[in-house]
């Protein structure tokens, strides 16, 4: 195979994978997107006597670099360094996984290597969502987020089940085509193609059946979500005063308010001044919301804020994110906070736990704390933010529970499960999404809320500063939504739910199984590689 053809195949897979995250093609295209790369890998293996195992890396770096670059380039609008780091790290890790698959074919057995690809890739996605440089945005299963009729079974498997489906589809179709090309028409090729069709059709049929037969049966509650559309670069933290922003949000809220509203939802950091937690009840913005709520004594208000807490110098287990107050012995932490204000009683807070690497936190904080000043300012503060140690739900006076999911947290399926296991009847996502401009970023982020609705069977109320605000039912269907870059306020009744799905109960069990197996497999490959080197065998 000539170099041009190899490069073409690598580019083709990168482009096809990218299309799964756009509106240019159905998300289902990812079910065949890896085919060109598999043919490229197969050719290198066929001529393994002329190629070393690492010769595949330039092609995988090209392919996955295209996929990452075309899919998350919009990060550049908010954080150029973050965009470069995300593309480089993701591309490198994906290429490493594919190289290990290629190496396993050389060291173990050709047929077994495709099982290795399944374990290695899903193990990678599982661990990539859980380490300090986590970025699960491009887990393969997320590419099906626009095709909710095909992924209703995510309530059993989560996104990793979708990744498994995509990998199996690509492998089986590759084997069928490869066998046909190699032997022309053969029984084996027909069998593989038939199995591939079944692998596509059976889960799709099950999903459509689930979609058509699923019924929401819980009590309904009335939600109002606000999209104030305040420019995060030129207004939110600079030219527009705190009072002006709060008054704007309350004015918009008023447009949909009446005596039957149960919840008003405002976006992430809607109260942009840093409020000491001990003084929230005396803060002018808080008091303005309280005055507004006096008109609607049955309603609750959930809104984003920035808060600060203080620690004494002798505090045991001082958080690693705590910073010393200048000219003082005391310490403080800043938080990205969800503030819940019920009609009676005091307020509650939840601090964002899943922070954006390089924007809200420095990875490996104990060893890299000296680099904290490089954290990008996207919210009025710099340096790593403090976090809540675990998910927390807000309970209203009627006993209904809300999951306050702040922005980036909505991409973590297993973390969202924690809210539901603690009794959340609804998912409430508050976000900004204005940092990225009119790019695919806010659209991709919106689709994660649809996936979370399916996985948990919880309706979603989503308030964005700008981007997409709206409502999603328990099947992942969009009930109503706003447009980008408009001031808006919309309202809907959402059905509650207290049933637990298999995925909520067991989480990423697929990832745990495949992750553990992938670690054993890597150790086995390392041992075989060392033996081959000692015996001077080609790798």
How would you describe the overall organization of this protein?
The protein is an alpha/beta fold. The protein contains 16 helices and 14 strands. It has helices at 3-19, 35-46, 57-72, 80-107, 110-128, 154-157, 159-183, 187-213, 235-239, 242-254, 284-293, 365-368, 413-421, 440-456, 502-506, 509-534, and strands spanning 220-227, 263-265, 271-276, 300-311, 323-324, 331-341, 348-351, 394-395, 401-406, 426-431, 460-464, 470-472, 478-481, 488-495. α3 packs antiparallel against α4, α4 (80-107) packs antiparallel against α5 (110-128) and α7 runs antiparallel to α8. Mean pLDDT is 93; it is low at 374-382.
**Could you give the count of β-strands?**
14
Number of domains: 2
- The helicity comes to 40-55%
Nearest-angstrom radius of gyration?
A: 25 Å
CATH superfamily of the largest domain: Carbon-nitrogen hydrolase
Give the SSE string.
HHHHHHHHEHHEEHEEEEHEEHEHEEEEHH
The level 1 CATH classification of the largest domain is: Alpha Beta
Low-pLDDT stretches: 374-382
Sheet of most strands: 8 strands, mixed
Q: What is the fold-level CATH name, i.e. the topology of the largest domain?
A: Nitrilase/N-carbamoyl-D-aminoacid amidohydrolase
Mean pLDDT: 93
Q: Helical stretch count?
A: 16
CATH architecture of the largest domain: 4-Layer Sandwich
Which shape, going by the Cα principal axes? globular
